[in-house]
Amino acid sequence: MEKQAKARENLTALATRINQINNSVRVSAPGIALFTLVMALIVLGVAWMDGRVAEGWMVAYTLVLLAIAFSLLLGVQVARQWEKAVVLRLGKFKGLRGPGVFMLLPIIDSASSWIDHRVMVTPFSAEKTLTSDTVPVDVDAVLFWVVWDAEKAALEVADYRSAIAWAAQTALREVIGQKALAEILIGRAMMDAELQRIIDERTTPWGITVQSVEIRDVIIPQDLEDAM
Question: Torsions phi, psi of 144, nearest 5?
């Protein structure tokens, strides 16, 4: 159980890191197309100007078109149907963009976050947690949640995906500690509802709504299981 929990934590950390990399470096297909078009114009322009104008003017022409090409490459962005881009201008929140094509002003604008508005699923667990009658249990659960305010999710918490996972795990440990083993075993529906309420209260300031929580498994000590 502990190895599985550790593996889940490692996978969560890896997914978070990949998401951060994707958010920091993202080039759209329209941007690539415009970049290719401008590069083609550079090649044609240089070929046409060769032998007709001074070398200095040719270099200046090439540099200007290169600057335009890179601006188009980085400035044209596409937000997919289920996401919003959080745009900062000179480090300050400017607004939300998407879904669809939008333009970032070179140098002064940046898309700091890409917020997914689909329903997300996060597994979480509590290992060797004592119930109110001092029985150590392992509990696995799954959380269904959605971002309803992209601005809050980006600005109010550093990493909302990790934050909600930790909030869920902490709430699970608290609820287990307040209940006897019998309550946990026969009252899963009530425990699901209680967890949903607690986690939702903690994540609402981050622009996140918890739709439901489902306890998947409760593991008790083997000797106690044999006695039952």
Answer: -110, 120
Per CATH, which fold does 119-222 belong to? Answer: Tetrahydropterin Synthase; Chain A (3.30.479)
Kindly report whether the peptide bond that precedes residue 136 is cis, defined as omega within 30 degrees of 0.
Answer: no
Dump pLDDT digits (tens) for 183-204. 999 989 999 999 999 999 999 9
Domain ranges (residues) in the chain? 1-116, 119-222
- Tens digit of each residue's pLDDT (9 = 90 or more) over 116-130: 999 999 999 999 999
Q: What is the pLDDT of residues 36-66, one digit of tens each?
A: 666 666 666 655 655 555 555 666 666 666 6
Q: What is the pTM of this model?
A: 0.71
The predicted structure's pLDDT at residue 44: 60
Judged against a pLDDT cut of 70, whether residue 12 lies above it is answered with no
